[in-house]
Specification:
repressor, ribosomal large subunit binding, NT_sf, translation regulation, 110 residues, 5 strands, globular, Beta Polymerase, domain 2, alpha+beta
Length: 110
Amino acid sequence: MGTKELAIKIKKLLDDKKGEDIVCFFIGEKSTVADYMIIATGNVDTHVKALAEYVSVELKKENINPIYHEGTAHGVWVCIDYGDIIVHVMRKNERVFYNLESIWGGFPKI
């Protein structure tokens, strides 16, 4: 599975569990951090945790494991780093406050 296909799959997994305002930006042309940045919102802490866990579990079934995974204990903002894809799942207040779209929003969406 290519990087773009994996990004699309992660976006679908988040949608399957009712993630809100899911966006996926192609940042690879201007960033050395990753090729894709995915941002999604969960309603409450438990929803944020459930979204992140679902993505991790489903991808682990395909032997796709994150390089880094942070924030699951609190469920306010979970970051999962798959190398070429970084996934942010956060509550609405944190998403508005940190406004990651202001950084990455100018990049093409998939």
